[in-house]
Amino acid sequence: MTKRNDLLLEIGTEELPPGEIVALAEALAQGLHAALADNRLLADDASTQSFAAPRRISARITGVAARQGAQTIVRKGPALAAAFAKDGSPTGAAHGFARSLGVGVEDLERMTTDRGEFLGYRERRPGRGLAEVLADILEDILQRLPARRRMRWGAGVTEFVRPVHWVAALYGARALRIPVLGLMSGRQTRGHRFLAPRALAIPQAAAYESFLESEGRVIAGFAERRKRIGEQIDRLAVKIAAEPLVDSELLDLVTALVEWPHAILGSFDQGFLEVPREVLIAAMQGHQKYFPLEHKGRLLPHFITIANIAPRDDDAIRKGNERVLAARFADARFFWDTDCKKPLETHALGLSQVAFEQRLGSLADKAARLARLARVIALRLGVDPGQAARAGALCKADLVTGMVGEFPELQGIMGGYYARRDGEHEAVAAAIATHYRPRFAGDILPDGALGLTLALTDKLDTLVGIFGVGLIPTGDKDPFALRRAAIGVLRLLQAQGERHGQDLPVAWLLEAAYAQYPAGLLASDTIDAVHRFLAERLRNLLENTLPQDIVAAALAAGLDRVYDTTRRARALRAFAQSPAAPALVGAHKRIRNILRQNHEPLDGHESWVGVEDADRRLAREVARRETMVAEQSRDGDYESALASLGELRPAVDAFFEEVLVMSEDAATRKGRLHLLTRLAALCETVGDLSCLKISGDAR
């Protein structure tokens, strides 16, 4: 039986980029697993575990063999007829094959396969040991790690994410000596930089994480460290009857920064609570990496910080963090008080000094366009146009305030606060506060109709303007975040339809945005280019929840209204599962093929009613369904429209079974082709049915 054991590999470094350590560790484990499997060293039930901490990435794999099994390699050479002459002497082909293998002709053998007889050679190769294989594969594995940047250190030429100080490699309890990144591996590791700085010898691979924790004061597993931080935060919060505000991304970041987490509860002057809570939370989370605390939605004058050390007394660390936070809050309060001395309208005057894009003018120019465009869209939606114009004119004003200069992530939010202090209408203030939404995938949308209008206006202006001066996203380059803006437009339009039953035409919106720019400034094909861009983004959005063929059917005629297209796609998905779908979809594809091959003009057959029963029956059904489906589609009842189409199945089946479409009689042939043209158009009322891929459809 092949001996198997656990393999451990640890790369010890300077502090790694916190946003990359999990991906690096997982890639190390996956790459090592795949390479060992390729080299026949893994059991079928082998498992892999990765470890990620600030100064190390590690992988442990179970079921690893100590040595490869011996392998017989069969090399096939020339056919026997070509390898030997009639007198049985070897030909040049036989000698050449033997030379390529480094053996004599006498070492070759005759092999029979299902394709004839050949000259061949069997080479038995002994298996290599694990250390020898690792020496061959590790360099490639490490080079393939997803590091954004690599660096060199000292006088060497070795490159890695950060300088490497040690490499540990163990097979069971045996240390492996392998050259890795300019070092020789062994069993030595290092513990916490301050709590256990001495070198440590790992006893065996299976005890890796428990040994590091007990002797090195390092919790090696990222998930385990993250869980313990969460538990410590919860325990401290309970002590003061608080609920912690735990941002998932912040928790990941803190987990990546500490090896031995220790949560400490701190406090700040309650007077700082007069500053908007978003400012205080931004200072605590974004600047200091603290976890704020609240009670029933009200921010409390407390925070939790995670230290990377377990002190004898928390007071020194607590007081130090409280002093730093107090200084940060004092700055925030100064900006708040200073900004509030001037109304938002006065701040807006400074926008003329800030460029939006060189050819598109300043932020003041953008604000003027937003005011005009918001008014136009508001009139179409039944929203107060005066409020819309006011919100558009003021929504960028907070960009020149001191607070947003210090906390850029609060743009819009601070504008909402300043607008309320100035006595602006609440709807205007709320719209200003939320007009950047959605800022990222999954972000919430503005609540009110005015908020939706302003957010839509802002993104449309950016899309049309930037596209209009030729700055179209290419590859992964999208400096103006136009893809995000486009997805935001689509989500806002969907919400407008779902919440308020208002589904604006995309072309009209783009034309309205285009009209706000000076004549001749933007490219003439801007509207078409943005329209195509939005259609492709909508395709991607819909394909997150719907099959590709359903989305293709709904978008076959292009993008008109976003909410309408979404409803069509959902109705088509339901129709595709109905009993009538296979036959009707198959018939539609057949009709498309027939019409594609026809080159005769079909004018003058609108009133054709047929010459046979099947003709007449289908003509009656098509005429009746044309009116019915048109009314149902006009009302947005696409499920009923598709159900009405499904009722055509018997007449369609009978038509194709009983009549010859391409009749020798020209009038009959043209009449039937015209009838099929009407039927094809009917089948494309909700979406192009020929795009649907349905098992069992009649083609």
| Proportion in β-strands | 5-15%
What is the approximate shape?
flat
Radius of gyration: 36 Å
The termini sit apart by 57 Å
Q: Tell me the total number of β-strands.
A: 18
Q: Order of strands across the biggest sheet?
A: 2-3-1-7-8
Helix/strand/pairing category:
alpha+beta
Number of helical stretches of at least 4 residues? 26
Low-confidence stretches: none
Tell me what the structure shows.
- This protein is α+β, with helices and mostly antiparallel strands and 699 residues long.
- Helix content is 48%, strand content 14%.
- It is built from 26 helices and 18 strands.
- It has a 5-stranded antiparallel sheet.
- The mean pLDDT is 92.
Give the structure's gist in a few sentences.
This protein is α+β, with helices and mostly antiparallel strands. It is built from 26 helices and 18 strands. It is flat.
Strand and helix map with partners:
Layout: E1 4-13, H1 21-38, E2 48-53, E3 56-65, E4 71-79, H2 80-83, H3 92-101, E5 109-113, E6 116-125, H4 130-143, E7 164-171, E8 174-175, E9 179-180, E10 183-184, E11 188-190, E12 199-201, H5 208-216, H6 222-239, E13 243-244, H7 248-257, E14 262-267, H8 277-287, E15 291-295, E16 298-307, H9 315-339, H10 344-347, E17 355-357, E18 361-362, H11 363-381, H12 385-394, H13 402-406, H14 413-421, H15 426-434, H16 449-468, H17 482-500, H18 506-514, H19 526-542, H20 548-555, H21 562-576, H22 581-597, H23 613-634, H24 638-646, H25 649-658, H26 666-683
Antiparallel strand pairs: 1-3, 1-7, 2-3, 4-6, 5-6, 7-8, 9-10, 11-12, 13-15, 14-16, 15-16, 17-18
